[in-house]
Amino acid sequence: MGGIGLEFMEKTRYRYLGPSDQQQGRPQPPLEAVLGDGSRTPLPTPADLPTPAVGLREAIEVRRSLREYADRPLGIDQLALLLWSTQGVREVLKDRATFRTVPSAGARHPFETVVLANRVDELELGLYQYTALDHALISLPSPTDLTGRIEAACHGQQIVGASAATFIWIADAVRTTWRYGERGFRYVHLDAGHVCQNLYLAAEAIGAGACAIGAFDDDALHEILGLDDPHRFVVYLATVGLRNVEA
Question: What domains sit in the chain, N to C, each tagged with a CATH number?
């Protein structure tokens, strides 16, 4: 049985690859793509974030997809910890690469994180981009019935509306393909798994839970987010919320 999936795997084998943009001496894309020019909200610095008492082994053992959440909001410090755990910058290497809290092929880190904040202390309901280089949030345009539209774009998955926050990971693919050519599209999807797993473990550590979402209407979601560059596209989402006491 053939199909576009098998064709993608075939055509991204090394024998089909030409020289990458990096090999041809073309300038590398920026380390970060700011998607809007809204108001900026600084986040608590990593050194000031709470240190969860949950150990790594416990977090791994109890980790599961959580689809029912408490009505309590996430604290801004809790959201900051989740953002730093998934895309936090530990070091900028001569403006050529970033070393972060997750692995990435060639340290290219192609993702921008957009958060749908439903119930987060100190944030109004809306969309916010995490600017990892300065550990802050920038507000993005938020259309009417924002949560309902994103939930509908996720094929009616009600966990979007129930979540305190939903993470939306947008790939800026040229950051990876600049170095790896067409094979870089494989690495973008691998990188998404690293990011989401860190979210799961960090959520467990703060008494919360996460649920990954891979089923969504690309066109509808891109319209909500104002994405019109074919090299920028949503790869993955995950809802987050605090656990019910009995959960």
Answer: 4-242 (3.40.109.10)
